[in-house]
Design goal:
The protein has a domain of 108 residues. Strand 1 and strand 2 form a beta hairpin. With 180 residues, the chain is mostly helical. Helix 1 runs parallel beside helix 4. The chain has a three-stranded antiparallel β-sheet with strand order 1-2-3. Helix content is 49%, strand content 11%. It contains five helices and three strands. The two termini are 25 Å apart.
């Protein structure tokens, strides 16, 4: 006689999905705190540029109205409203994708992407542009681009998510997902 493992947990916000949103909250908070610090504490609006590690890392205020590297930039245009809507769709899609996830890197990675996407989306809604301030260069090579903590979270999150698709419960199965 076969016995089945009964799973009394209701479907919804548990396991990896909960971890993803916890990581997202931490990523979002770090991103917003860093932006607040450079705008308010360091007053980068007035200072313009701050050398952190001379020749390697500078804080430079850049208002990005477009996507990565300023692509499709349009001040006050579609980006201020369309890109946050896309970010919300990505967050919802990742949450749905994670619903059956059992691998921690998927949850952590998705959480980093969600936190970073929401951080940049909030910037667009509040400031009309994303607050970028990190400029990393190599001595003798001038890098014209700036980024922020949210961007780092999104990139790291995509790397973690790419480690593999989430394990899914076979149709009709009860109990934990068997190891693959």
């Amino acid at each position: 006689m076969m016995t089945s493992v009964r799973n009394d947990r209701p479907p919804g916000f548990h396991g990896p999905l909960r971890w993803a949103w916890l990581v997202a909250a931490v990523a979002f908070a770090l991103d917003q705190a860093s932006k607040w610090a450079v705008l308010e504490l360091l007053d980068l609006r007035s200072v313009g540029r701050l050398e952190v590690v001379p020749g390697w890392v500078d804080f430079v205020l850049a208002w990005n109205t477009g996507m990565n590297f300023g692509l499709m930039a349009s001040p006050g245009g579609f980006g201020q409203w369309l890109l946050p809507a896309v970010a919300a769709l990505v967050c919802g899609g990742l949450s749905w994708w994670l619903y059956g996830a059992r691998r921690p890197p998927n949850a952590w990675g998705a959480g980093l992407v969600i936190g970073g996407a929401l951080g940049n989306a909030l910037d667009r809604l509040v400031h009309g542009a994303v607050v970028d301030f990190l400029n990393v260069s190599v001595p003798a090579i001038d890098n014209p681009y700036a980024f922020n903590i949210a961007d780092v979270c999104v990139v790291l999150g995509v790397v973690l998510v790419s480690f593999g698709r989430p394990a899914r419960r076979p149709a009709g199965a009860i109990g934990p997902v068997p190891p693959s």
